[in-house]
Input
Amino acid sequence: MSTGGFSQSTQYAAMDELVDLSSIVAEWEAEGFIKNFPEGSIELHQYNGMQAGIPWIIDPRVITYRKDVFEQAGITKLPTTWDEFLDVCETIKTKTGMTPLVIPGDRDGAQVFLSMMFENGVGVTDSSVNPAFDSSGVGEVLSYVQTLYEKGYISSSTASYTDPDMDSMLLSGNAAMCYGALRTTVYKSGDPIAETLGVMPSISSNTNNSPRTLMWVNPIVAYSQTEHPEEAKVFIKWWIENMLPLFTDGGVNGYPANKGLLEDKFFNEMPYIAEAINNAVPYGTSPVWPSANLYTAWSVIEGENYLGMALQEIVTGNKDHTAIQKKYQGLIEQAFKDAE
Output
């Protein structure tokens, strides 16, 4: 057995290396426990009729903001749309001199770009799982990122930024917001600024009325080489139902996919953590949305960092959105052909 990356369930199922965990799901359906999982998360890790993995952890991408900076800038209403977010960025830049938003330019930048795609109601594919990076919606996302870049709402050095750089910018007073993983370590660091951190409600574009944010839904799997497949299934079922100490005592970042555990006081006594649960988790969207199932081409799309490379093109000055879309549409199409 192992936990691991989002795509491991389909990667190993495609090689016939996993135990079918369908019987666990059947038991949970009979017991009523199945309602504890985010909608669609069980189906996400099904492959060719088998339950290749069971979701165990959810990890949303969020906009973390400094409440003290917003107060300093006189911002009393949090943005809900791209236009409102751009207005907030302009206010922060004008009144505080800070860089409004910091995002990573390395591989983690792909996750921010994908989250922005979801804000605009588009995914890497359409609902029929046809590559859709050449859609008008993706073009709008490229334009949005270009606006952030050209107006100085994200740093001119974004292309070189890593995840630790975001923490440094936030804590040093050089940035008011960052977009990425939960800054749980920063929040628990004891730094006075950490006490001012909040999680902004997920936003949507100007034309899409459904706020969304990227949320990883990672599985636990059992390998077919095991000599004890039934015992492995018993353990996985028990583990999912009783994993709270991993988070309360083990320091695991993210949240349990078993939503019933989110009612524990551990997740509600710290404002930053509670805000993430209320403002991001309900709008969490799997990386392969609008597909209901994880597809094998995703491991190539993610592994080759196509979305991060598209973001890099914008933050290094490429304004030819049509060429960018054509280039990465072709690469994504090839990933699907290679996966057939």
Q: What stands out?
A: The chain has two domains: 2-59+216-285, 62-212+295-339. The chain is about 40% helix and 15% strand. Residues 62-212+295-339 form a domain with the D-Maltodextrin-Binding Protein; domain 2 fold (CATH 3.40.190.10).
